[in-house]
């Protein structure tokens, strides 16, 4: 093979010469390298796409070796392949794809590695690759220039934030004036991808203005080439987040909006669709700037919904759904109390458009497709219209009801199934938003009609939508908070009978009937001793088990829906039905046992088996929680504990992430139910616990395992001690890893608190490792200025985890002679509390935990903490704020903290 030899020569040069003084030598090496490699790389890339698996695997292995042994040579040869017009399209396209994958990855830790790897390459190598990429933009081959666009954007995403490749945007903009249309198209595509990869603060405003000018010019109706116009419209979609300053300028905003609206009228479907996508994005990014344009947009979208092809019509409806989302958020955040100087005023666009918007949406409901229920994930005009109608109902509440009721009354009994289904869908769509007072009288009239339709309507679509609507009625208008009950002793039996009948229907209807039963059961959750469903409990459980064994239970998510409903029926059941739940336990155990016996399965069958195992573990978890919650049933249930644990351990041996997650959660419930007796399972279970904590790839499994460590700590208390070294080592490793998904770190901190609480002063030996980690995480999470909402939400989770750790440690050491070991850490903890109080962005959960930690500190350290708390910058203000909180949990914690602080200060 030539690869390692040529690569070795190149690598030697890079490592020893650094290329700084030898540009000519470098150039000649590249030339000879390219010459030697060209034929070979082309053939390997073609082989990697071969239908012959042996040829393909060999080629993939060769590429992998080349990449590992000589990355610079590998990337150079790929960029050369992509740029060469003599090469086959297939090899060029794959070369570009591999290049792209060498720069970016979905997993954060992998992405970080790839970025570092690129940044550490020699400047001259990178320059040569970038030259090839820019050259490829002029290629007349669409696959080549389109792939190059994406790769350039990935490189820009790495380099522009590092202040590298400053000339890129300038050289792209100079391409815009090229005569060949394909060069212009490729350049606009690149600018679009670049805006997707780079955050707006990396590009200065002057360059943003030039990018937007180029893009908007490319969108103009005068642009004769549709490919160019489409590329420009798609580029604008990505560039909108850069246009803040431009949207603040009336003239520039008017110009951009005019061009977008004109593009929605283009004769080319794809351009119209892309232009409406821009409008959808503008609706959420620049909601507060829309008032002058909203009437024109209504006219454009209304025409598109009525007359245009489906992809365009769907985007037009999406615009109004997006406006609803914005207004729902504003009304929730501000509760409708707007003053003239509110940061985010609500313009009530939906309320104003209501008389014209609702009839337009109702019309779409009649455009159903014959096979829509069978096709999972289907999305069509009728579904989009119904979804938007639901959002409108949530936005305007009662105002929607009089506009929709005439449509329902007119169509609900029509001979054409489309009209009956549309009327039912309209009714189901508006049940969330309006007040129960407004809806209850209507639902009381409609309920019997719906129950009759579910059993008697000849059309499958109508039955499907009827069952879904019944589910919505039970979800929003049934339960302990609803004053006038919809379900009465008079109609309860009929409802149950009809839903159980519906569960025997076609899979899609049966699945929706399960869903309706789910919400019916949930509404009786807080009933206490007796529930109207108690007399039917046995029959309901039996029917649901029958559904899970149906031949066609794999269709329409039916089996999953049946188990989810069974879980909910068990969860919301009363003490009266406990003996029946107890009988259910061995049935589910037997089913799980059977799945573990079937060994010789095809991969498709194994996947179905794993899904079933997950559902059964989930069901056992609910049964364990239900029976473990009461002393009488717990005593009887414990007889099954050994068998259940044995089944879960066998499930772990199957090595499937989803099933592991469900089995872990069930074991957490079992630990809670069995308490200290759980210790006997630890020797066997510990290895799986450790495996879960090490599972960085399937981080959800890792997160669930962390939670189970907490459950086990609460169950075993100091009996967990023999396993603490191993668990603590792994948790601290997890915390310091940049490979583990960040969402797992807050629960790990909480878990440290659980361990400390369980083992008390024995936590001493871990203090020197745990405390510095808590301190550095606390410092990171204290300052959030400039963070977006998502980051603030994560930061609050992190803070809460850190505070729960501190709380567990203080409570664990309380009344121990070793409390003085914590004194050195108190000033830092108080400083952390000060700084998060000053930031003013903590949520209620953090506030409650934080004031609790202040109390724990005073309670555990006594007089040693008193003087420190008195010196603290904000402890007094923070305490007073919590004491006057409307949230009774915060207030309760604050009152306890006040007592503890008073005691500590007065000592």
Structural account:
The protein is an all-alpha fold and 907 residues long. The protein is 73% helix and 0% strand. The chain contains 43 helices and no strands. Helix 8 (142-159) runs parallel beside helix 10. The longest helix is centred in the last third of the chain and has 26 residues, at 603-628. It is globular. The model is unreliable at 1-38 (pLDDT under 50).
Low-confidence stretches: 1-38
Rough outline: globular
Helix content: over 70%
Terminus-to-terminus distance: 82 Å
Structural class: mainly alpha
Rounded radius of gyration (Å): 32 Å
Total beta-strand segments: 0
| Mean pLDDT, all residues | 89
Question: How many individual helices?
Answer: 43
Largest sheet: none
Strand content: under 5%
Looking at the chains present, what oligomeric state does this protein adopt? Answer: single chain
Pfam family, one: HEAT_EZ
Subcellular location: Cytoplasm
Organism: Anisodus acutangulus
Protein name: Importin N-terminal domain-containing protein
Write the layout of secondary structure elements.
Layout: H1 3-17, H2 23-47, H3 53-69, H4 71-83, H5 89-101, H6 108-119, H7 123-136, H8 142-159, H9 168-175, H10 181-197, H11 205-219, H12 226-239, H13 244-248, H14 250-263, H15 269-285, H16 294-307, H17 310-334, H18 349-364, H19 381-396, H20 401-411, H21 417-429, H22 436-456, H23 460-476, H24 492-502, H25 507-522, H26 537-548, H27 558-571, H28 578-597, H29 603-628, H30 631-637, H31 641-652, H32 657-674, H33 682-693, H34 699-716, H35 721-736, H36 745-759, H37 764-782, H38 789-813, H39 826-839, H40 844-861, H41 863-871, H42 875-883, H43 888-906
Helix pairs in contact: 1-2, 1-4, 2-3, 2-4, 2-5, 3-4, 4-5, 4-7, 5-8, 7-8, 8-10, 9-10, 10-12, 11-12, 12-15, 15-17, 16-17, 16-18, 17-19, 18-19, 19-21, 20-21, 21-23, 22-23, 22-24, 23-25, 24-25, 25-27, 26-27, 27-29, 28-29, 28-31, 29-32, 31-32, 32-34, 33-35, 34-36, 35-36, 35-37, 36-38, ...
